[in-house]
Amino acid sequence: MNPTSGKTGNRARFVAAGFVCLLTLAACGRHNPTNQPPQAGDSAVATVDGQTVWASDVKREAAAQGLIGEGDPLDSSSALFHQALDEVIDQKLLAGEATKRNLANDPRTRRRLAAARERILGDMLVESMVEKTVSESSIRGLYDEELKLSKQADEFHARQIVLSNQADAQAVKKLLAAGGSFDTLAMQRSVDAATRFNGGDLGYFTIDVMPPAYADVLKTAKTGDLLGPFQTDAGWVVMKVEDRRLETPVSLEAARPQIVRFLTYNEVRDLLEKLRRRSQVKLLIPPPVKSPDAAPEPASAPPPPPASASPPAQQTKTP
After folding, report:
1. Which helix (H) or strand (E) holds 253?
2. Contact 292, 129 (CB under 8 A)
3. Roughly what angle, to the nearest 10 degrees, separates helices 166-177 and 182-189?
4. Strands 201-206, 226-232: parallel, antiparallel or unpaired by DSSP?
5. Taking the mean position of all CA atoms in its chain, how far away is CA 64?
C-alpha cells in the first residue's frame, strides 16, 4: 500500500487536503435568485442584503478555519456556529462593497476569481471521487488488512518506587515483600516527584516506550511480580507489576479518519498520474537550484499513515 509519488504525490496530497475551500469573493458575491436551499435539509440562518446565508455555508466556513472537522456536526445554537456565521456575514458584506466599487472588473480580481474557481472545481472533483470510491466496505477492508498485519504487543500496568541508592532500594523491597503498603512507601521513600504521590503508578504502557533498564526486567515479568531493584538514570527502582495483557487494537471508528485520508490520497494520486500522462505540461523555468548543504530529497514522499492496529497514545508517566 506504499504509493509512489515524487512531484505527483506531493500535488496529490496537496489537492486531497483541500476538501474544504475558504469562502471566496466569487462565492460571496454570487446571488441565489430562487433562494432555494443548496442541499437537501439545509436551513436558512441569516440574510445579508437579501442574500440568504445557509447552515451549510456556516459549516463550510467553520471547517475551512479548522474549527470543526470535515463532515462534523455543528449545532446552530452553539457559540462556535455563531462565530463562523459572523465570519460568513462579514465576508458577504465585504464582497458586496467590493462589487459596488466595481472591483469585480479589475484584472487582478478576475485572475484571482479564476484561480478560486479552479481550486473549487478540483475540490469538488475530489469530493465526488471520495463519495464514489471511499465506501464503508473499502474502509473496513483496509482496516481488517492492517489488523491482520499488525502484531499486538504486551501492555503492562506497573508501580515503581525510585530510591537514591541500592541499599535503600533493597530495604524497601523487603518491606514490600513483608506486606508493606506500596502507596505508603512510594509517598514516603520515592525520590521520583512525578509518581510518588499517586502510589508510584505508571499506568498502562508497552515496553518499547520505556528506557532499556525497564524493558529488560519486564520481558519475562508476570502479574504480581515484585521486580528489582535495578539501576536507571533516575536512581534504583523497585517495581510491582499490577497487570500484563495484550494491547487493545485501535477501533475502526478511531482509525476511520486516517483510513479515509489514505484511500483519498491513493485515488487522487492515481488520477493525477493519468492526467499528467495524457496532458502536455511544459515548464518554462529551469528546475530549482539545489543548495550544496541541502539534504537529498526522498525518492518518494510518504502518504498519510494508514490504519494501524497499535492503540492510541495513552497518558502514561515515564520515569
Report:
1. helix 252-278
2. no
3. 160
4. unpaired
5. 16
Residue matched to cell numbers 508510584: 200
CA angle at 97 for the pair 48 and 122, rounded to the nearest 5°: 80
**Partners of 54 in beta bridges:** 44
Q: How far apart (Å, rounded) are the C-alpha atoms in residues 118 and 125?
A: 11
Residue 257 makes CB contacts below 8 A (sequence gap 6+) with 69
297 SS3 class: coil
Q: What is the CATH number of the domain that holds 216?
A: 3.10.50.40
Q: What is the pLDDT of residues 134-154, one digit of tens each?
A: 888 888 888 888 877 777 778
Q: In 77-192, which residue ranges form alpha helices assigned H by DSSP?
A: 79-100, 107-133, 136-149, 166-177, 182-189
C-alpha grid cell, residue 209: 516506550
Residue 37, domain member (yes or no): no
CA–CA distance, 205 with 223 (Å, rounded to integer): 14
Q: Is residue 294 part of a domain?
A: no
Is the Cα torsion angle 111, 116, 119, 120 positive or negative in sign?
Answer: negative
- Which domain does 220 fall in, by range? 154-246
The verdict on whether omega for the bond into residue 302 sits within 30 degrees of 0, i.e. cis, is: no
- How many CB atoms are closer than 10 A to CB 15? 20
Cell of 136: 464503508
Q: Is the pLDDT of residue 313 over 60?
A: no
pLDDT tens, position by position, 73-107: 899 999 999 999 999 999 999 999 999 999 989 99
pTM comes to 0.49
Give residue 315's pLDDT: 39
Phi, psi of 9 (to 5 degrees): -65, -40
| Structural domain contains residue 260 | yes
Among candidate residues 30, 158, 154, the one with its CA nearest the CA of residue 92? 30
Task: Determine the distance from the C-alpha atom of residue 125 to the mean position of all C-alpha atoms in its chain, rounded to a whole number.
Answer: 23
Q: Which cell is 190 given?
A: 520515592
